[in-house]
Specification:
Blueprint: H1 15-31, H2 33-36, H3 44-50, E1 61-65, H4 71-79, E2 85-89, H5 93-103, E3 107-108, H6 114-121, E4 126-131, H7 140-153, E5 154-164, H8 170-176, E6 177-185, E7 192-200
Parallel strand pairs: 1-2, 1-4, 2-3, 4-5
Antiparallel strand pairs: 5-7, 6-7
Bound molecules: S-adenosylmethionine.
S-adenosylmethionine binds at residues 35-38, 41-42, 65-68, 71-72, 89-92, 95, 110-111, 132-134, 138, 142, 146.
Length: 213
């Protein structure tokens, strides 16, 4: 499970495939709205805003939490430097199987298992953690477990980039990280906020507080 697979992959999504992906995503949202968090995958504008400041050549270990139907995963696979390590996480089984099959990559289940995946693979920390997890609606314990995993796994110079559909995580992220910047992406359903966070706040031992109202 911890091998880095590669294979022939097409990152060009055809219209019919796109519709199929959107329908599958909507179906998964209807079945588990508090896990999936939105009705449709992220827009190209949101994806490009998430990756705006990433220097892929200096990014050796990458993790993506909550890959969904893989709209961001495909972009990461296209942009990442050859030889870099990539760990994708998706809790929903059908989506996970689809990602494994279509993208020919290993996909782990619960994002809270990130430290274990990194340790078993190479014992390295992540330079970049991308999150699509809907913290606003996830159970508090899940948010706590995932954010603890993120804080443990991010390297000292690493970056955590997450999107949410509101500013509700801003103060929690500001406690956990030294530097937090935000930007709004209106061209997305629903409009989203990108959080770019650097410098894990180890001194204050900032333990994530979970859901913020
Ligand atoms: C808002 S969707 C984002 C999907 C995709 N990244 C995108 O941008 O379109 C959130 C995804 O996180 C997944 N998820 C929720 N909790 C998770 C967890 N604990 N571990 C891994 N994935 C999780 C959901 O199943 C869903 O596919």
């Amino acid at each position: 499970m911890f091998s880095q697979r590669s294979g022939n992959r097409s990152t060009i999504t055809q219209p019919a495939e796109l519709i199929k992906e959107k329908l599958l995503f909507a179906k998964k949202f209807a079945a588990a709205p508090r896990t999936v968090g939105s009705v449709t995958p992220s827009s190209p504008q949101l994806i490009s805003s998430m990756f705006r400041n990433v220097d892929w050549q200096k990014t050796g270990v990458i993790a993506e939490l909550g890959a969904g139907t893989g709209v961001m995963t495909k972009e990461i696979l296209k942009l990442k430097a050859p030889g870099s390590l990539f760990f994708a996480f998706e809790i929903e089984k059908e989506l996970r199987e689809m990602l494994k099959r279509d993208l020919k990559i290993d996909v782990y289940d619960d994002a809270a298992k990130l430290p274990r995946a990194l340790e078993a693979a190479h014992g390295r920390k992540a330079d970049l953690i991308i999150s699509g997890l809907p913290f606003a609606v996830l159970p508090r314990d899940t948010t706590l477990a995932v954010m603890r995993a993120v804080l443990r796994s991010l390297s000292d110079n690493g970056t955590f980039i997450a999107f949410q559909y509101s500013f509700h995580m801003k103060s929690a992220f500001e406690r956990m990280f030294e530097e937090v910047s935000t930007r709004l992406v209106v061209m997305n359903i629903p409009p989203a906020v990108v959080y770019e966070c650097r410098g894990v706040n180890r001194q204050r031992g900032a333990v994530p507080c979970g859901k913020e109202q």
